[in-house]
Fold these 4 entries.
Entry 1:
Amino acid sequence: MSESEEQLAEGTLMSHLLELRDRLLRAVLAVFVASIPCMYFANNLYTFVSQPLRDKLPKGATLIATSVTSSFMAPFKLALYVAVFIAMPVVIYQIWAFVAPGLYRREKKFAVPLLASSIILFYCGVVFAYYLVFPVMFKFFAATTPANVVMMTDISEYLSFVLTMFFCFGVAFEVPVAVVLLALTGMVKVEKLTESRGYVLIGIFVLAAILTPPDAVSQTIMAVPMYILFEAGLLFARLAVKTRKADQARREAEEAGNTG
């Protein structure tokens, strides 16, 4: 490689690193801006997030703080997580803006809707967990509390539990995106996925048993939507593969016409 080529490569690398730095700074700035109101309303946010459990606690029972700092740190940590949650579209956009120039137009055509749908589906998973799963789950836990035992949960333990559940359900709702990506990349054919429905169903219930607390109710509440989303992913995967094949056939016909 000549000296001029080496300088060009170094200049290109530096420009990419500088752009990456700018994108990361914008993402961090978005999280920081979102964290300002979240910090101010940190206690209100914790009250909202803890509502499903507090509604199911026995009369007279409350959440407790077993550490000197947990009454401050738990709402503070929650505010940071909520800020990241709010700023996630901006963060994803900055990642996309950095990667997009290296993609072909055909790849961008599929990547944009997949990115948008993955963000929306993750949010849907979190909302599903809060409004539908938590009330049933906490009611079950409260009902199975042994006699002479008062259910009084530490606020830090509760926060860790619900954040884990939010993440698990958010990721679980990404099943359609995963199915479409598998089909578009050619790693697994749609026909093969369709034939493997039974194995997928068993795998989903096993995964739900691992991710959720050890009770059949929570496992079923996660597994059923995951399987429905898998079927939806199959439908979208068929459409995406069909569309890509049609585009490829059209391009080949245009190239043949131009050659002729």
Entry 2:
Amino acid sequence: MSIDSKKIPSGVHVFLVLMKAFRAVAEYGAASRRESELGDSDFRVLEVLLHKGAMPVNAIGPKVYLTPGSISVAVDRLYERGLVTRVDSETDRRVRVVDLTPEGRKLIQRVFHSHAQQLEELARVLTDSERVQLAKILKKLGKHAERLLERA
């Protein structure tokens, strides 16, 4: 089966569809966190600690797409709420290691479980095959964008 070249979306059209879908999906995902009173960056920090364990502050930032200044503010905010601990590294006094408190773990487990259920509900519109295909396509597009950025 050949595709009519007139029906192939342009790069601009693909980008616009991707951005519109991203915005809608991101808004839907954010709705699952609203009752927790966790902002986006706080949720991301707690989620990475839940799934990766205790980490140095400077290692968390890149994983959750926060600058060094922003990650410090986020960790301070979570510390003040009693959701994380900060301790000096035993091997390097310049490094502060962040971990979940029992209260923080309980909160993020509950919020993440709800969030995951809502995202599963969202993805139900796709067949198993479409999920696999979409993940492959998005990964391919993302890796290509990274390569092009490296060349620039």
Entry 3:
Amino acid sequence: MLQIKNLHASVEDKDILNGIDLEVKAGEVHAIMGPNGSGKSTFASVIAGKEEFEITEGSMSFDGEDISELDPEERAHLGMFLSFQYPVEIPGVSVTNFIKTAINEGRKAQGMEDMPAGEMLKLIKQKADLLEIDRKFLSRSLNEGFSGGEKKRNEIFQMAMLEPKLAILDETDSGLDIDALKVVANGVNKLKSQDNAVIVITHYQRLLDYIVPDYVHVLMDGKIVKSGSKELAYELEAKGYDWIKEELV
């Protein structure tokens, strides 16, 4: 599904990613961990196509198509979804209207008509019930006055509605208490299937107690320096990252 080879990227002429190789197949969950400043969020942004980051070397393909030059909207239409670490507020635009627009823009890109209103409402009800979301929540302005947990739950709702092939969750556990974390993780787990894949970017092992990864990758100095099973996350929680640095010397 996603193939990344020798990926180098920079921002404002500063090198951030220094040769990343990663392959993500349908049905898999990959966790990216690493200390602050290691390049985790930059990696998510580069995959999603944020224009402030420049790919200087390497290749990146999605379902066999080179996506290096595609803008974020085009990548989204191919089936990629990025959950932001700090979602923006959009006053005056309800959660429901925002997601209706996003879905219909995606359909338009595929040469399809807008989803019929009745079908849209049925889908919204189905996904809201699946994620245990109060219908009143959907009429509120997007992220305006939302708590950290509500913002994350809203993003999982968007993911449920858009049904992406690849979801990238950038530090989706940031600032969440344990109850909110369980709600978000439960939503991700309900949406996982053999037809989609998830990349979870996190500082902490605790999220991986609830979203169990098939692979854990450690990112340091803009490179993946170690990969393993979920047990690697527990090792990192117990020992930190210094032991990996020592292995690399």
Entry 4:
Amino acid sequence: MEEDACGITAARGNVYAEVLDVWRRAGVSPDTVTRLAEADAFAGLGLNRREALWQAKALSGDKPLPLFAGDMDGEHIDEPAVHLNRMRLGEEVVEDYLSTRLSLRAHPLALLRHILTPAP
């Protein structure tokens, strides 16, 4: 885990532009990228958790194949964009607790407050 963090920090250069950059440049496993996506670590790239997970789950192998490691000038195949529904606040809070054991979005009871009745 610590070596993954060092690799990500060392390879970041100016910035990472997308999830694939982290995998290619930092040399971390797809599992590590998936765990980062689950923890909403790609929000700084403008990706919500579902979009980042979608991209992370598309990675396969421990590292990119040499043929596909560089820019291929016209040889790159772009897949059509997938539009995923944003998670509701409750889903985000649950995923935060599952991945990091805390949430800065909302307290879980705040999501239930509207159905809780005060004690007499």
